[in-house]
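User: Reviewer 2 asked us to show a designed sequence for the structure in our supplementary figure. I'm pasting the structure tokens here. Could you produce the per-position amino acids so we can include them in the response letter?
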């Protein structure tokens, strides 16, 4: 049940996150994901970005995709154990078999203070593959909308 108190609390908690967008993935890194200083490993963040980026790519491909390129990756700020990470992913280009996705990562820190920081951004390219793991044509967008894609 949403109460006025919950509505205010949700608004404060989401301050600094992209308005009107839903994250593909939300996760909180654990101590095992960080070095002895509490900084989360870049490789762990990269893996989560790949997962988040693959979700819209998989939907657009209507099936299996494989990461074929990390076009760009920028760590803007460190990520710490206890940060709540939100991963936003948008398709920015579609080819015959490939899908390029832009991913932004925001960290909610000191969640009681609603401190949100954009920590990472990346662009990755995925290729649609068949069961044989070879590239395949993407289905037409119209068939995905009408629900006739095989």
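Assistant: Here is a per-position design you can include in the supplement:
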């Amino acid at each position: 049940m949403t109460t006025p108190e919950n509505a205010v609390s949700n608004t404060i908690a989401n301050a600094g996150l992209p308005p009107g967008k839903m994250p593909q993935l939300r996760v909180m890194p654990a101590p095992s994901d960080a070095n002895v200083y509490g900084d989360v490993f870049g490789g762990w963040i990269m893996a989560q970005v790949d997962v988040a980026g693959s979700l819209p790519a998989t939907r657009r491909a209507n099936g299996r995709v494989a990461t074929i390129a990390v076009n760009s990756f920028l760590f803007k700020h460190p990520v710490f154990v206890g940060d709540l990470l939100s991963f936003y992913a948008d398709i920015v280009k579609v080819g015959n078999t490939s899908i390029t996705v832009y991913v932004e990562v925001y960290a909610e820190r000191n969640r009681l203070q609603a401190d949100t920081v954009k920590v990472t951004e990346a662009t990755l390219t995925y290729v649609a593959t068949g069961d044989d793991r070879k590239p395949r044509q993407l289905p037409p967008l119209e068939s995905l909308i009408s629900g006739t894609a095989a």
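For the response letter, you might also mention the following. The mean pLDDT is 88. The chain has three helices and five strands.
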